[in-house]
Structure formats: C-alpha cells, structure tokens
Model the fold of this input.
Amino acid sequence: MTEKPAAMGRAAIWTLVIVSAAGFMAALDNLVVTTALPSIREELGGGLSDLEWTVSAYTLSFAVLLMFGAALGDRFGRRRIFLVGLAVFTAGSAAAALSPQISELIAARAVQGVGAAVMMPLTLTLLTAAVPEAKRGLAFGIWSGVSGLAVAAGPLIGGSLTEHFSWQWIFWVNVPVGLVLLPLAFLRLGESRGESGRTLDAPGTVLVSLGMFGVVLGLIRGNPDGWTSPLVLAALIVGALLLVAFVWYEQLVAAHPMLPMRLFRSRAFSAVNAASLLMYLGMFGSIFLISQYLQGVGGFSPQEAGIRMLPWTAMPLLVSPIAGIASDRIGGRPIVVAGLALQAVGLALFGLVVDGSTGLDYVAQIPAIVICGIGMSLYFGPTAQLVMASVRPQEQGIASGANNALREVGGALGVAVLAAVFSAQGGYQSARDFTDGLVPALYVGAAAVALGALAAVFIPRRRAAKVAAAGERAGEAAPARI
Done:
C-alpha cells in the first residue's frame, strides 16, 4: 500500500475530497454556533451557563476523545471507524436541529463532538495511506487549508444561516453532507490499520480521556465560574494528575501503549506539536474576540462581520496548497516558522491599530488581517506533513490523534486565557472598554504564536528528518538525535 505512483491517482483524489469535506464539518462546528446564541436563547430559553455549554459540550467531547478515536481506528480499521464517527456526527447534527429544549441541544452537541473526535484524526491517516509521498505536501496543504478555513469561517457561516434562515440550519446543513459522504466513504476509501495484532490500550485510554476531560473542563469553566471555584480547581488538578499517571503508565507499564512516549524524544514530533498548541492558543482566542469586536464596536451584523474577516479566513484556500507544494520542495520547517512569525506580527499589528480608538477603522486594519491570513495559511499547509513524517507509518494514526488533541486543548486554552485578559482589562460596557480589553489580549495571543514560531525552529531540517525516519523504519528503539 506504500508503493504508489508519483502522480495522484483517482483513489487518492477521492480520499482527499471525502476526508476534506468531513474535516470541514468537524472543524466548522467549533465556532459555528457562537453567532447564533442570541437566537437560540430567544427560542429555547436557558441562562448564560446553558448557552456556554452549548458551545463547550462540543469542544469538550471533541478534545477528550480524539486520542481514543485514533486508537480505535488503528485497532479495528480506519475506514470502518471513520464511517462510525461520520454516522454519529450526522445523527448528532440532526438531533441538535430537532432539539425542543436547551438541555437536549447541549446533549446533541456532545454527541456531535463524539462523532467528530472519532473521525477527525482518521482523516489524516486515511489521506496519508492513499496519497503518494511525493504529493503529500499538496494533499496535506489542501486538507489543512479546508480545516483551517472551517475554524476561522465558523462565525460567518453561522451568522449567515441564522440571519437568513434559522439557527437550526447551522446543524441541518451537516445532515445532507454526511448522508452523501457515508456511501462515498464506504465505496472509495481504502482500509488500513496500525500495528498488526495491536490490542486496545484500555487503561491508557481511560487515563488520557479522563485527564483531558478534567483539564479542558477546567479551562472552559474558568472564566464563567472563577478560576478559584471548587469545580475549576478540582478539574484542573485531577485532570493534570491523571495525565501524569497516563505518561507514567504509557512509559513504564503498558505493553502496547496507545501513545508511545518515545515519540516525544523525536525533536520533530515534539517541536511541531508544541508549535501547534501555541498557534491554536493565539489564533483561536484572537478570532473569538475580534469577531465580537467587529459586531460590538463596529456595529456589523454577524454576516457583515464575517465578510470583513474574509481577508483572513479565506486565505487558506489560496495559500495553503501553495505552501504544501513548497514544502515538498524545500521542507516544511521554514514555511511553518515564517507562517507563525507572520501570524504573530499580524495580531500585534491589529492591536497597535485599534489601541486607543473608540470606533472601527476597517481600512487601517486590512493589512493586519491579510498578514494574519497569510501566516495562518503557511502554518496549515506543511504541518500535517511534518506530523506524519515524524513517526513510523504504523504510528501515524495515534500521532494524528495527539496533534489534533493538542490543537483542541490549545484552542480551549486560547479562548480561556485571552478572555480572562480581556475581562481583567476591559469589558462590554462601551467601545472604549471593549478596545481596552481587546488590545492586551491580542498582545498575549501574538506572544503565544511567537513562542510557537520559536518552537518550530527546533524542527529538524528536511535531510536530518529523513535520516531519523529511516532509522525508525530500520527498527531503532528511538528516533535519531539531531
């Protein structure tokens, strides 16, 4: 299955289309509901905490079960488990659209997150198995660009559907797409697995799932409940202890670990995952606040605000495939470093432009928005290829799950940290208050992304990475040191 012709064949193209469409739906639902919350509250009722859980239920179940979804695919077949995840996500979307009360909507959002967590890490491993190595940069660039566009464009799509139809259409739109993708995936995707005879690591799965649940729950509830509240403190402390226990168990006890700790001895694997977590921390939290700034200070509707974000959010469609092609030629490290640096510069520039203002000068903000879009796109293009190239082929499923899980944790952390900075320095009382909170939050986001660029510098050069990968395939116990 690894011997492929240099050109992308029909099977590879079909795989790219199917997994990109599925990845778009899963990534879209991270933020698509945010602009519809006022309409949901008007129709279904519920308090502020209920509305927060409408967003958080999806993020929580998604982040917690990503590693488990990847492990299931390695054990029982990636196409088979991908189909299960896609079916669960589609059913959860229909249930969300039909929800008569806020509690049912929250439960349906959690089901959506379970389905997304099962299928999302498998999109990357299915794509890796189907696409020849020489073309993976282009394929990963397209896949990453589509997923990145979905995250960034969530508020625009959600606002447009709510404004012109109803909030239920945010969820209904997933159903026909899922129903079309299910038979296509069954007929067109090839099956693959992880290591032959690998058993499911049940203790490791329980430890990492409960640990991620505690950490993400604490991050999500930190701002609304208070960082010193018993629930938040208990969730963060217990979650962190369980994750430490998971690392100990995987390294010293597990016969077939779901996440071999030796992977983190690879400089490439550790550096790219650190860069991913920091990138999502800065980007996710910044988009969350900037979309509100355009509505609260600029006075735009959700759709109008989303349109003004297009120089940022639509850029991955244009730049990510080019970045992927370039990574095939020169390697991914310089492109990722440049992308993260540009993203950091764009966020800081946006903060400088709006600092001290009481209104919105959109024309002056366009350069910062464009720089952010280019930087984000350069990051998305080569990152998937770097993750896949940093591990052995039979470990690519769990590597994809780990990378996706860290990105989701980074996103949850970004919203929590930047919202905390915003609340400490400003608020929603007036345009000046909002700007006073937004500016330092953007600087914190820019600093996080800049640290991500620094982490990406430690990704090995292309030739060194190939030597390390060759050593892994030869059966060395650990990746070669660079």
Notes: Residues 267-296 form the longest helix (30 residues). The CA atoms of residues 10 and 77 lie 21 Å apart. Residues 1-5, 467-482 have pLDDT under 50 and may be disordered. The two ends are 29 Å apart (CA to CA).
